[in-house]
Amino acid sequence: MVELDDKLTIPPVALGTWSWGSGNNGGDQIFGNHLTEDNLKSVFDAGMKYGLNLWDTAAVYAMGDSETILGSYLQNVDRKDVILSTKFTPRIAEDVEYPMEKMLDGSLKRLHTDYTDIYWIHNSADVKKWTPQLIPLVKSGKIKHIGLSNHNLDDLKLAASILADAGLKVSAVQNHYSLLYRASEQAGIIDYCKKNNIVFFSYMVLEQGALSGKYDVNNPMPNGSRRAKEYNPVMPKLTNLIQAMRDIAKDKNVSVAKIATAWAISKGTVPILGVTKASQVEDAASASKVKLTDGEVEVMEKLAYETGIDTRGVWEKPMI
After folding, report:
1. DSSP track, 99-138
2. What is the DSSP-derived secondary structure letter of residue 152?
3. Whole-number Cα distances in Å, 80 to 94, 175, 203
4. CA distances from 23 to 34, 42, 67 (A)
5. 2-307: which CATH architecture?
6. H helices within the chain, ranges in order?
7. pLDDT tens digits, one per residue of 218-261
8. What is the 8-class DSSP label of residue 197?
9. Could you tell me whether strands 8-10 and 2-4 are parallel, antiparallel, or unpaired per DSSP bridges?
């Protein structure tokens, strides 16, 4: 377990809902999924059963559909038993007087709650413009902890200084971080977080399934999704890394996905794993118990570096 500002105990793995719902920015377009409220109830129930009660979503995920699905399940549980994480995405902000508050209010309505435990600025489009808008929302109680996603180190420091002037702080950072994309580590962001008691959440740890062990050159991702278009062409370059991960997983009698997740945990981060099946939740719950040796970590990192692949998303600002 990890403490967020010594006020909130969060599980070693968070569960992501990016692939829930359909439509613009939905799981059907990005992942090739077609998941509805009926399909995902068992996933939510499994998360709560295994104590993985931090659910990460965003207003932009399927343009509210992800939040709506998650919110339908939250009506049947005690609010204090769930940790909610949702996001303000600048690029979809409306041209109104208080765009952040309006987007947050929409999220809270869909989630059937009057506050979110973590509220993130989804990217650093304009730090000086958007960061101050968090302040009244925290003071009103609608936001309990502040998070920044896809911000580089300079942006993070600037936002922290703006918040400090109001007596507030950044509690969490959420960036793309995996064996194939370690820019936040190389840029000193993870070290900065450790020094300043900021929890670093790593997303795309499995690189949308490319590091799950499920796919390879002989079994590519099904066509028709954005991830297939991006990852299938580089599958040959991943062969040695995936094989090494499979060997380590076999030696420990666990799945390859657990190895990728255990790596992220070993680096001092809290992985956010997208889940669409109850079995994936069970995998995530036990991943924190997998211990990697220094030698295993070194081998995987070396092979990952040798792929020469850059998996930075089109939405991501360069960290370095």
Report:
1. HHHHHHHHHHHHHT-S-EEEEEE-S-S-HHHHGGGHHHHH
2. -
3. 31, 26, 24
4. 10, 22, 13
5. Alpha-Beta Barrel (3.20)
6. 27-30, 37-49, 65-74, 99-111, 127-130, 134-139, 153-164, 183-186, 189-195, 226-231, 235-252, 256-266, 278-287, 294-307
7. 999 999 889 999 999 999 999 999 999 999 999 999 999 999 99
8. T
9. antiparallel
CB atoms within 10 A of CB 251: 10
Structural contact between residues 246 and 297, judged by C-beta atoms closer than 8 angstroms: no
- Token pair for 137: 């929302």
pTM over 0.85: yes
Q: Centre a 10 Å sphere on the Cβ of residue 160 and count the other Cβ atoms it contains.
A: 19
Q: How far is CA 161 from the centre of its chain?
A: 25
Angle among Cα 161, 142, 43 to the nearest 5 degrees reads: 110
Digit-coded pLDDT (tens) for 140-191: 999 999 999 999 999 999 999 999 999 999 999 999 999 999 999 999 999 9
- For residue 276, what pLDDT is reported? 94
Question: CB-side exposure of 267: number of CA atoms within 13 Å?
Answer: 28
Average pLDDT score over the chain? 95
Q: Are 10 and 2 within 8 A, CB to CB?
A: yes
131 CB burial (10 A radius; 0-12, 13-18, 19+):
buried
Residue with tokens 């690029």: 91
What's the pLDDT score for residue 45? 97
- pLDDT of 53 reads 98
266 touches 295 (CB < 8 A): no
The answer to whether the beta carbons of residues 123 and 89 sit under 8 Å apart is yes
Measure the N-to-C terminal CA separation of the chain; round to a whole number of Å.
30
Concatenating the DSSP letter of every residue in 282-304 gives: HHHHHHTT----HHHHHHHHHHH
Torsion, CA 27, CA 33, CA 34, CA 37, rounded to 10: -70
Q: Which residue has the tokens 């650093």?
A: 124
Q: Which residue has the tokens 């952040």?
A: 100
Length in residues, the chain: 320
Residue type, 111: L
Nearest to 180 by CA among 314, 287, 313: 313
Q: What's at 252, amino acid-wise?
A: K
